[in-house]
Amino acid sequence: MKHHPDYLARKECVNHWYAPARIGLFYHWGLFTGGGMTTADGHFVPLRYKTVEEFEAAAPSPEAIAKNLFATARRFGAKYVNFTCLHAADGYAVMFPTKQPEFTLKTSKDYLGAVIEESARTGIRLIIYIPMCSAHVNAPEGPYMRGISNQREARSLYGRLVEEIGERYDKPKIGGFWLDGGFTEPFLDFPAFIKNVFPEAIVNVNSCTFLEVKEDDFSVTEFLDSAPVPPYNRPSALTKVNSYCIGAPPDDFNEDIPNCASWWYWEDRGPFRKEIGAKEKPYLDNPNFLLKQMISSLGQRGQWNFTFGIPVRLDGTLEEKYHPMFDKVERFMRWGSEAIYNTTGGKTSPIRPGFFHGGGFCSVTFPRENPKICYVLITEPPDAAKSGYFLVPPGPDPYAAFFTNGLEPIRVSDLRTGAAIDFDMPGGMGFHVRDMDWNDISEHGVKVLKVEF
């Protein structure tokens, strides 16, 4: 089997640090929105700060914001942070005192610089978010960018901004760039342009699922086509072209980035009108939902990453209502991180991810350097009513059976406790486990079997 040179070049780039990292935190929307999507009186507030002076009075310490942001990321084991340098939703406000005269909102304090230095100090990588459009340049209070009326002018401005970032800061401290907006001419050369300035950087393009531009290292999955099954299993809802004419993402080179709150500018108009808080409801109703979503995204396909699109406050901390679900992820990562870091999804593993015999649901990961180990992350237990079939009637103790394509495990153990698990292989196609205690799924959100071949 021969791989195309462009594929191999992309693989070499992402393998440097991005693929092993697997999980990140996305600081959404830009600081001028209040940080993430902080709410007031139950409603999302766009562009909360109208002037730089008002914003900097609310955020007087870039260093404090940076420390809180990376402490939030470290809390659940994120290996990188996506930070919004400027976003259309925050008035294209630049988070450092840029010399580009077109931007009408640019801070006098160096928020980006503080984030870069905190990233270097903690070892948590930094990816800088930059849009690729000028769609929201005009506003009732005036244009956010002077002299920018089309995409070609925007491309020139963003190119100069990237060059300025490269001149102003230490390039090795910047892990990559996350590009958003319409990926068409004249922006098709933008990933190559960035790599010319930052040769070691990762470049992600939002929803570019076809990877036709070889300098685009990773696609990003934001929009779903249908309702996931189970509800947290986003890969199940990414099987065909969706309403944005975005194709199903590839098995490799993809980042999944759900956000648990609606976009603020879709809350009160158009076909996307939603009940306030509807998207975050499953996360708040079930503290295990976020953990299960992360596990399914990382364990259903191939080399995917998962970035937490959870609203973060202006100061880099979490709102109190999100703490229970982050606590669940944090506790799992204390004992289950070996099934996450430096792994790939189980689509090509001997054990099939998804629904298994017995009526349960699992994801599968395996170490990128050792495919002889598989981690079976069971997020839905088997059901006694579904465990029987026409030869074996249902019993009080549900069993779980996993296809291995005939490969016989050397050992099966409980990852959390280390205890060996008895198994058999009737018929030789896969292994069965019986009389299992499934309480880990309700208590910890997941039960993990470590299967060694």
In the CATH hierarchy, what is the architecture of the largest domain at level 2? Alpha-Beta Barrel
- CATH class descriptor of the largest domain: Alpha Beta
**Spatial gap, N to C terminus:** 24 Å
Number of helices: 11
Structural class: alpha/beta
CATH topology (fold) name of the largest domain: TIM Barrel
Q: How much is the average pLDDT? A: 88
Supply Rg: 23 Å
Spatial strand order of the main sheet: 1-4-5-8-9-10-11-12
- Low-pLDDT segments, ≥5 res: 37-45, 263-273
β content, as a range? 15-25%
Helix % is: 10-25%
The total count of strands amounts to 20
Annotated CATH homologous superfamily of the largest domain: Glycosidases
What about the largest sheet? 8 strands, parallel, barrel
Short characterization:
With 453 residues, this protein is an alpha/beta fold. Helices cover 24% and strands 19% of the residues.
Structure description:
With 453 residues, the protein is an alpha/beta fold. It folds into 2 domains: 5-342, Glycosidases (TIM Barrel, Alpha-Beta Barrel), CATH 3.20.20; 349-452, Immunoglobulin-like (Sandwich), CATH 2.60.40. Helices cover 24% and strands 19% of the residues. The chain contains 11 helices and 20 strands. Strands 1-4-5-8-9-10-11-12 form an 8-stranded parallel beta barrel, surrounded by 5 helices. Strand 2 and strand 3 (43-44) form a beta hairpin. Helix 4 packs across helix 5 and helix 6 runs parallel beside helix 7 (190-197).
